[in-house]
Amino acid sequence: MHVLDLPPFEAKIRQISADISEIWDELRRKYVVLTPEEWVRQHVAHYLMAHLGYPRGLLSLERGHRYNQRQKRTDLVALGPAGQPLLLVECKRPTVAITPAVARQAATYNQTLRAPFLLLTNGLTHYCWRVDFERSLNERLAEIPSYAAAVALAGG
């Protein structure tokens, strides 16, 4: 797997067949197929928990939601103390560039979730924004906020 621009962690990986590996997903408490996108998703989840203080119990992987009568899935959502979406994370495989189209996809998902923070990453490049729905403004952040900072900035 790719070396990412995220801290390494002790990943539990098992080989299922010659061309299929699985990685232990701490949040879903099961092994999942190890794809390049899953590698990024697992690194981001671990980074949020171990380095930025996001509570494990308030992280949700591949959460379903409805948008325009269609069922969609977000890669990762961090919830605030009251259970409201706080940070929406869209992960791509390392070989996929974070383009305006990727940003539009995540912003579209966020129209229904209304998370005040949005993170786009391919594991190598990370873009994080604070979203102000009332004023229709997006503020690019220099770094991913810690859980405490995100809660404070979101007003909760």
Describe the structure.
This protein has 156 residues and is of the alpha+beta class. It has one domain: tt1808, chain A, CATH 3.90.1570. Helices cover 24% and strands 37% of the residues. The chain has helices at 36-52, 100-113, 147-153, and strands at 13-17, 20-25, 30-33, 59-67, 70-79, 85-91, 117-121, 126-132, 137-141. The strands form 2 sheets. The chain has a 6-stranded mixed beta sheet with strand order 4-5-6-7-8-9, sandwiched between helices. Strands 1-2-3 form a 3-stranded antiparallel beta sheet, covered by helices on one side. Helix 2 links the parallel strand 6 and strand 7 (117-121). The termini are far apart. The mean pLDDT is 89.
Helices and strands: which structural class? alpha+beta
Tally of domains? 1
Oligomeric nature of the chains: single chain
Largest sheet: 6 strands, mixed
Shape: globular
Task: Please mark out the parts with pLDDT under 50 across 5 or more consecutive residues, or reply none.
Answer: none
**End-to-end Cα distance:** 38 Å
Number of contiguous helices:
3
CATH architecture: Alpha-Beta Complex
Radius of gyration: 15 Å
Residues in helices, as a percent range: 10-25%
Q: What's the CATH topology name?
A: tt1808, chain A
Could you tell me the number of beta strands?
9
Q: Identify the CATH class.
A: Alpha Beta
Question: Which percent range describes the beta-strand content?
Answer: 35-45%
Mean pLDDT: 89
Query: Could you state the order of secondary-structure elements as H and E?
Result: EEEHEEEHEEEH
State the strand order across the main sheet. Answer: 4-5-6-7-8-9
